[in-house]
Amino acid sequence: MQIYKVGGAVRDRLLGIPVTDIDWVVVGATTEEMLAKGFRPVGADFPVFLHPKSGEEYALARTERKSGRGYGGFTFHASPEVTLEEDLIRRDLTINAMAEDDQQNLTDPYHGQQDLKDRLLRHVSPAFAEDPLRVLRVARFAARYAGLGFTVAPQTLELMRQLADSGELQALTAERSWKEISRALMEDQPQIFIEVLRECGALKVLMPEVDALFGVPQPEAHHPEIDTGVHTLSVLQQSALHKLPLTVRWACLLHDLGKGLTPTEEWPRHIAHEHTGLKLIKAVNERFKVPKDCQELALLVGQYHTHGHRALELKPSTLLELLQSFDVYRRPQRFEEFIAACEMDARGRKGLEQRSYPQADYLRGAAAAARGVAVQPLLERGFKGPELGEAIKRERLKAIKAYKEHA
Question: How far is the C-alpha of 102 from the C-alpha of 212, rounded, in Å?
Fold first, then answer.
């Protein structure tokens, strides 16, 4: 029995960056031997075990063969005869197909170390094209390592194109796709993830609504970058630079989908794109079974982001309606995330990345004024039921008017 550290732990150590997850592969062992040593089995599809003390994952060396569509369409074979090289060749990228023993002796049959030096994301073997999930994984690695100068090798991009054209991407489950998308959006440069998907034709298959934004012009006076797709990527990039949570990043990606529906004769203006975009945002949310908090914020930002930009001009009654839509009294955090998304939208414009966004503090002040209305005095005056609701609304409107006059 020989045990090797494999994959990301080896790659990141060689890159000199912190190692977070450690995976191990066991060569020359049987399931019975692993159980005898106290390992706990966890793999449903193939033999993976948890170490009795560290809890880290140890997998028996295995080979795999394509047997159906999608990410799950594989038959695995694990036995003591499977070599380390055979286990490594089924991995996606050469930089993930290296192993080291307990003395840090490197096994690198597919030249991953050279590709690390060359800053290349390159597939290990033609079998790469059998697993559609790898399109998303490679795009995610491109987003993660873009800051170190990594790019996707042309031959690998070509295989990704073939996968995008083959119809295999549609066989991915919503859960698997969302797992990769959400992880990619939380990388340092999530806009690279979208760029790589677009370059290989996968964006058109997975998120045609986002793909449709490229080539759609906006008024140059407001958007010096002109192209709506380019703007969307810049907004996403800003959300990562400001270390914002997944909810905000997802909303940033989808906020302008309505502009993809504007008839060409109306370009570069996009009247009511906030409302036309809602059905598209809903469609993308449903396609990937997106978590509820991400779904809700994306729809609210899509509908109200222009209200955010025009906050200083809004009538007190419109401001109050906006605050009610977000339920700022019970869910103040969601309104904060909306403000953040609006600010990223304003900063995601060529040459305006550092521009101040006074609307943010103004909206916070309006929310604080409305929240400051005390309910107890109204109860003491005998208001109850629907009348109480109306009285609270009147008082909040008064508070917002007073705030607006002094702001």
Answer: 50
The residue written with tokens 């609270």 in the block is 392
CATH number at residue 33: 3.30.460.10
Residues of the chain with pLDDT under 70: 44-46, 66-76
Is residue 392 one of the residues assigned to a domain? Answer: yes
Look at residues 86, 111, 136 and tell me which one is the last residue of a structural domain.
111
Please confirm whether the linkage preceding 217 is cis (ω < 30° from 0).
no
C-beta atoms surrounding 290 within 10 Å: 22
Model pLDDT, residue 63: 85
Torsion of CA 374, 367, 271, 229, to 10 degrees: -150
pLDDT in tens, 304-361: 999 999 999 999 999 999 999 999 999 999 999 999 999 999 999 999 999 999 999 9
Domain boundaries, position 390 = 372-406
* Residue 317 domain-assigned (yes or no): no
Residues in a beta bridge with 5: 24, 100
Residue 221 pLDDT: 92
The pair of three-digit structure tokens given for residue 356, joined into one six-digit string: 């101040």
Q: How many domains does the chain have?
A: 2
